[in-house]
Write a structure and sequence with these properties.
The complex is a heterodimer.
Chain A: E1 4-7, E2 16-22, H1 26-33, E3 34-36, E4 49-57, E5 60-70, E6 81-87, H2 90-102, E7 106-107, H3 112-119, H4 128-148, H5 154-177, H6 188-210, E8 219-225, H7 231-239, E9 247-248, E10 257-263, E11 266-272, H8 282-297, E12 300-306, H9 313-322, E13 327-332, H10 342-346, E14 351-354, H11 363-374, H12 381-410, H13 415-429, H14 437-448
Parallel strand pairs in A: 1-7, 8-11, 8-12, 12-13, 13-14
Antiparallel strand pairs in A: 1-2, 2-6, 3-4, 4-5, 5-6, 9-10, 10-11
Helix pairs in contact in A: 3-4, 5-6, 5-13, 5-14, 6-12, 12-13
Chain B: E1 4-14, H1 18-29, E2 34-38, E3 52-54, H2 58-67, H3 72-78, E4 80-86, E5 96-101, H4 103-116, E6 120-124, E7 127-133, E8 136-141, E9 145-154, E10 163-166, E11 169-172, H5 184-191, E12 195-202, E13 205-207, E14 217-219, E15 242-246, H6 249-258, H7 263-266, H8 280-286, E16 294-299, E17 306-310, H9 318-326, E18 336-338, E19 341-348, E20 365-367, H10 377-395, H11 409-420, H12 444-454, H13 460-482, E21 484-485, H14 489-497, E22 507-508, H15 509-513, H16 535-546, H17 548-565, H18 583-592, H19 597-601, H20 608-623
Parallel strand pairs in B: 1-2, 1-9, 2-6, 9-20
Antiparallel strand pairs in B: 3-5, 4-5, 7-8, 8-9, 10-11, 10-19, 12-19, 13-17, 13-18, 14-15, 15-16, 16-17, 21-22
The chains are: A alpha/beta, B alpha+beta.
Amino acid sequence: MKTIAAIATAQGSGGIGIVRISGEKAIEISDKVFKSIDQNKLSNQKGYRAKYGYTFDKEGKIDETIALIFRAPKSYTGEDVVELSCHGGVYITRRLLRAVLESGAEMAGPGEFTKRAFLNGKMDLTQAESVMDLISAKGKRANDMALSIREGSLVNKIEEIKSKLIEMTAHLCVWADYPEEDIQQLELKVLKKDIDSINNTLQKVINNYDSGCAIKEGIRTVLIGKPNVGKSTLMNMLSGYEKSIVTDIPGTTRDTIEETVMLGDIQLRLIDTAGIRETENYVEKIGVDRAKESIISAGLKLIVIDGSKEIDDEDIKILEEAGNENSIAIINKIDIDNKIDKERISKYASKVVEISAKEKKGIEDLKEAVYDIIGMTKIDASEVIISNERQFNIIKKAYKCTQEADEILKIGMTLDAITVLLQDAIQELMELSGERASDKVIEEVFSKFCVGK
Amino acid sequence: MKGFNAENYDVVVIGGGHAGIEAGLVAARMGCKTAVFTINLDAVGNCPCNPSIGGTAKGHLVREIDALGGEMGKTADECCLQSRMLNRGKGPAVHSLRAQIDRNKYKEIMKQKLEKQKNLDLRQAEIVDIEQDNDIWKLKTRNGAIYETKTVIIATGTYLSGRVHIGEVSYESGPDGIFPAAFLGESLKKLGLSIRRFKTGTPARVLKSSINFKDLEEQYGDEKIVPFSYSTNKELKNKIICHISWTNENTKKVITNNIHRSPMYSGKIEGVGPRYCPSLEDKIMRFQDKERHQMFIEPCGENTEEMYLQGMSSSLPEEVQIEFYKTIKGLENVMIMRPAYAIEYDCVDPQQMYATLEFKDFKGLYGAGQFNGSSGYEEAAAQGLIAGINAALKVKGQGELILDRASSYIGTLIDDLVTKGVNDPYRMMTSRSEYRLVLRQDNADERLMPIGRDLGLISDEIWEDFCDRKKIKEQELKRAKNTVIKPSEGLNKLLVSRETSEITTGIRLIDLLKRPQISYEDLKEFDVTRPDINPSILEQVEIEIKYEGYINRQNRQIEEMRRLEKQKMPESINYKDIKGLRLEAQEKLEKVRPINLGQASRISGVSPADISVLMIYLNRKSNN
């Protein structure tokens, strides 16, 4: 059985974060990331021992850590288990998990620790039902999670790469399975270029995901409203909310400013758009068109209205522009006055909340509204992290395959080996859904090529 | 069931096509009292579509059938007219043999093999009724003879409730004008099988002397023919050439103008046709941008003037066929001897079967070939062989034979059929195997001959040959590991010319061969201790060295897959009672009723989490 790892603590921002590793190589892997201050290796320790030291990855020191060692069968799973406890927080725990995975552990599947505990006889047989329930619930949640954070997350990227890979593999397959058909010639040059481009995309995804310390993926959010309704104040307030992490991501999107802020456990990628208004000015019009476009494609729309004034046509126009899906009408400046009838504008947006960005009032309401819309009311942060981390891992595994395909293509290996590697890459990307790469490839063959006698 | 009692058998095969032949022969060879029933003795081993055996992935199947002691490869070699190894240069995983064969000779040889087989009765009769009476199956012929048998293998091909369509004309018929099986379909429905309707088709056969071959591209066979069968010793010769021509704008025009007269387009045919065997009108309508479609002209045999027009199948009216064939270069004055036609037939949803090809709900009843929703002679023969082996094992009380996906294309084919089911006739392709670097046509013997030998289907002579080949291969692999090639000017010149790095110190032969740019042949003059070895063995050694990394990679995946295959599912399992399984998974699992966890994991709609839930369930069961 593979050695598995996952974050074992529930809250991403709790006081302590634990990464749990279980399996034959749990201790060996821990020795790669953990250095005890007394220089003693974990592999020399008996079970039920704790060691104090530091964890490291290739960038350097991660955090002060306590390593707890459990020797099989006296552990939760019945296998060798190491628990690495560091200071809590999304960033540190995640970085530690990453280091562990890079040292040879596999990301644990949903409910896998409990599954192993059961299979190794660590649980009463009567608990089987509840274990099955737990695994099933976790599996379902992992899936839901992948879907609910779809917008702006890696999922879209994965889909894009997957379909490109399927297309290429189908061409390779049709070329091998229908050698005598009159099909488009497969040019090595084109294949090389295609594999190169896939590699670049994967590489970029991996780099972007890795750089900086914030959790980058999140919900693409537009913040819109007339000038001076308090958008900037709101943005600043969100940025400063609960020591959340703020990063500038310059030039990565066509949007002018993008900021990642935390709202509770959710990351929002805020896009400041140009104001929307009718204009004849050509240059300004481009800005407005862009703004409209980014509104349509956003996963969450926050429309700010000045509550101290009567609502006007321009406000309504913006509300209409945003539509009533995934949109929250925010009535700001309620510290001054609230002249706006909540009922009246409720038909324009999915939710209406009243806040004072200046006095930091109503943030909890806003958070709840966002949670509701994203469908994350019942989801905790560590699961979001794990979900993202799992997808990230999948991409890395796929990248390993395509990279190798690239290398051996360059040295002139035959295309059957390359096809196998590409198909493996597709299979990696399909890991969560349980789809089969060969089925998809064959579907593509018959939809794209005129083959057969 | 009323009638006269005729004879009792262990195994009865209904159908004498490619599936029926292998099923009957193997059951008889395994010592069962066997009968093969066919509607017409002259149709045994008929090739109602193309006069060729093999092709991509299908060639693999033929080799595998041969390694298990089946007959198809041997007979194909005996009546080979032209042979080619396809995909040379594209990598060993996709090398595939394809041979043009003499259709009449093939039939003749196969029929005689059945006639001469000990324990086997070949009988002409139409089975019209089937009934199960406890453990005994009763079969009634149209003449009222009742046969009792322990097991039945249905291999009815396109005969079962067959209906031929040519434009607006349609009539009940099997292929090539032979009577269809008109009653058995109803009887099977009454028995409780879920029957569906598929469709396939074939192009016209035309008179050789009416074709103008001048200016047509010619296609020759390989200089040196590799036979299908491990037992073929004599050298095979190419006896014919094939020709290639193309459709054009006029062909397209004729077809487009008459498309409303195609029974597929007018809705007269309900059966589902194969995606990979489209008729010409399908190809033209679905791929409108394509300017021309390729046609191969293949002789049907040495002693006939009939020519097969590969790629030109159609169900358009005969007069439209005459018109469109004549638009094609070389066919301007063509005389059609048999028109193209589409044929609809009854078949079953293979998800009703185990991988032994036995019906889950009907013990002792097996299906093989097109009846199971596949297409192609080779696919049929492969299933016939496995159904025959399993029926015989059952009669003898000796367990079962299930080939897994990592063992063979045969295993992949059957697993796909019974696990995923089919929506249109299933054709084998190399793309269907995730382990294709391991499942090569050159190592079919290593993968399967030991199984064939255990079943008593491989003669001492063939077995010893195999053991010798294996020994030589292993010795050569060892030699390649231990032999050091010294640097020399000549060698470095070669290496540089192949754009790979020079050597300055001695290098092991195996390490040089790992370089994709360098072949065994290249190194002949530098490899002074090389013994004289059969080139096919040398090729195998080379493949194993060059692709070692990828073969190992696939072997690891295979190990992982087999771990799940080991966990058997109890037959009595009730998926609806398993808490934690999603509804979709419950339904799919209930339908397929997989025999092990591996098969369960391949059902679409069953997620990795569902498999974990099943694991816990099985574990609790076995502990209770």
